[in-house]
Every structure is written in C-alpha cells, then in structure tokens.
C-alpha cells in the first residue's frame, strides 16, 4: 500500500540534466556494481528535479553527503534526520533547552544537525561497533512523538546522551551513556539520579532502566542508590514522603512492581527507605532537623531549581553529585547527629525550605584534614574554611555528609513553617530539631 501511494508522488526531472549530474557524481562515487550505478542514477535524477533532499540509509552515500551537496546541490540525509527535522518544525517547544545549571549547561533534544555532526564514537562501550550503536540510537530518534532523545551539553561539549520514555506510571531509560572523559563517573551517576528527579517532578513513581544499552558503570551506580534488578532490568521507586508506614509502602510496592514484592519485603527498614526515597519510614529511627544554608551555597550543592534559572548557575562538579558535604562551625552537635533527615532552609532572600536530604555522617576535623578527606565534595575552598575557623588552622570544623537530596514540589515559605511549628516569631539562624509529625506536615506542604 505504501508503495502504491509513493507511485502517486513521482517527481519529474530533466533527462539531459540528469545525465550531466550522473557524469559528475561518478567522479566521487564508486560505480563498479549495478547497485552503485543505480544509486548514482537516483542521485542524478534528484539533482535534475525540483527536489533538494535525498533520503537514504546507504552509509557510503551518507559519508559522501558533503561532496554530493557541493557537486549536485542536493542534501543527502538519513531517515532519522528527516523525521527529526519535521518534528523540529511542528513541535518547536519540544526543542527548548532544559537547563540543569546556568545558560550553558542543559539537556537538549537531539536535532537533525546533531545526528550528522556529533562524534558518537565517544559514547561507545568496549568492543561496541559504531554502526550498531547508531542504529539503536537512531531507531529511538525516529520516534519523537513517543520517545525523548537528549544530549547533555556544557557550552559546546556534549557530555552525555540519553533516551527516555514516559508512560502513565513509569519513566523508562532505554539508553544512557556518558562521554569518555575524566569526569565520566560523575556524569554516569548523574544520568541515574537525574532520571529519578525527572520521574519525581512528573509524579511518576517508577524508574526503569534497561541494562542492554547503558554505559559500563551505570548499573553499579544504580545499585548503590537503591535500584533492584529483575529479569535484566533495574527498578527504583520514587514515592512521596507522606508515606511512612512499612506496610503502607510494601502494599504500594506490591501494586506497582509485583515482580519485586518479595525483594522489598526482605529489606531492612533503612534499605527499604533507600529504595523508595523520598519516602520516610517510621521504623527507621532518625533525627529530624531544619538546617539553614545560604542560597549561594545551595545553588551548587542541591538546588537545581535555582541553578537552572540563574544566568551562571552553580558549580557543576558538586551540583551533579548524589552525595555531598556542607561545612560549618562546630555547634548543635546534639541536634546534628546521623542518621537524620535534613530539611534545607535557604536564608534571605529565599526564606523557605526547598530541599529534603538524608544526613549520613557528621565529621569533625581541621580544615586541612577535612579538605583532604572530602576534596571532591562541597563548594568551599581552603580560604573559606580558614576564615570560618577564625584563621586558626588547628581549630576543628564540622562536615555534614549528606545524600538523597530531593527538591520539594512547592518550597515551603517561612510563614507556613511558623504556622506548622506554632512559633510566630521563629527565625532560622541555626539548626533546629523538629518532631517527626512536624517533619511530616512540612513535607505534605511541599509534596502535595
């Protein structure tokens, strides 16, 4: 039927002009076999017609696209490119950058120009063939209405590529690769955590990762942050924090992922919480704290919302991390004890709780020792810590090691916090311990 439809769209051409172009194309393309001669004739007829685009999957012709355009004045492109070009025209809004931090670090949908120009070799696994990788990637690219194919770009550099699909209850990662650079482990973990943030933002409770098309180390990162394996795929739940009872969560996991119900039931309270965060299990005993932080630090540690709207954004090497460190003077040690849930209160001009995270450890040490131990974490440098300890290099400071930072849907302003905590004149100049019920009420305001 498609063949019959195509026959009604024959494009006329000038035979004499086609013969002229045929001779020119033979100077740059092989013409030894009948198939090669037929290819040249089709290209020549296209050049001698009103059509200006020639669509083909033939790799030899695609490799000569630049010379063919210079010689015959026609663009040679792949089917994936023509599909994306049409989608770019009809769905312009879908190609607006999704900023991660600042104006030069963002997710962008793969464009027709990217298909032709990006060096896809940088994303291959060991032993993988380029043509095989491109065939898989471009098959996804050719379905833009259902599947989103994106590149993570920092300035002019392409750092990562991913293919995701959103269904009614699930975000599926079909493909995810980081470029071969010294920062590859950082970007690989970010590919996993960012899928979780994307699912949570769209209120999709399940993240599914298909292992066949992932970079070598992505599965390791996924397992470390709570994904479970079943039948060659990896799953994690991102459940709202208003769920708190073990049986309540297990009932929901059984309904959402019955294939993993037995595994979830076999987990301890802390393990189950890790696999379902930001859910907060009542059985996992911990402290609950509201901790003040300056917005200038938050933008590089966890506040993606602020980072994406800022012109310059935060510090990428810390903002992309799942775990991080926040330095402060030693105080409130009776409150800042791990394990704990921290609600981060960003001070003026924000004056609101924006983010939830887990406090994993509290470390005391001199600036030199702490910087050596956490040299890849945190945003403060030696000069900052030296000032913090009043120019006494032997004076100890506190390092709060935290992870699992999830942004609230709705930041909770100071007025609402005062109402929940029944403290009309409350300010947050220092950490404040709260009860579990107060923590629950704040999260209801932030997630519902």
Please describe the topology of this protein.
Layout: H1 2-7, H2 15-25, H3 34-47, E1 53-55, H4 59-63, H5 65-72, E2 75-77, H6 79-90, E3 98-99, E4 105-109, H7 112-117, H8 130-141, E5 148-154, E6 157-166, E7 170-178, H9 184-201, E8 206-210, H10 218-224, E9 228-230, E10 233-237, H11 246-256, H12 261-265, H13 269-276, E11 287-293, H14 295-301, H15 304-309, H16 316-319, E12 323-328, E13 340-346, E14 352-365, H17 367-373, H18 382-388, E15 397-413, H19 414-421, E16 432-433, H20 436-447
Helix pairs in contact: 2-3
How would you describe this protein?
The structure is a single chain. The chain has 448 residues and is α+β, with helices and mostly antiparallel strands. It has an eight-stranded mixed sheet with strand order 3-4-5-6-7-8-10-9. Strand 13 and strand 14 form a beta hairpin.
Question: Could you list some keywords that capture this structure?
Answer:
448 residues, alpha+beta, six-stranded mixed sheet, 23% strand
Poorly predicted residue ranges = none
- Helix share, percent: 25-40%
Strands ordered across the widest β-sheet: 3-4-5-6-7-8-10-9
Please give the number of β-strands: 16
Radius of gyration in whole Å, from Cα?
27 Å
Binned strand content: 15-25%
**Quick one: biggest sheet?**
8 strands, mixed
In DSSP terms (H or I, runs of 4 or more residues), the helix count works out at 20
| Structure class | alpha+beta
How far apart are the first and last residues' alpha carbons, in Å? 51 Å
Determine the mean pLDDT.
Answer: 90
Q: Give the overall shape, derived from the CA principal axes.
A: elongated
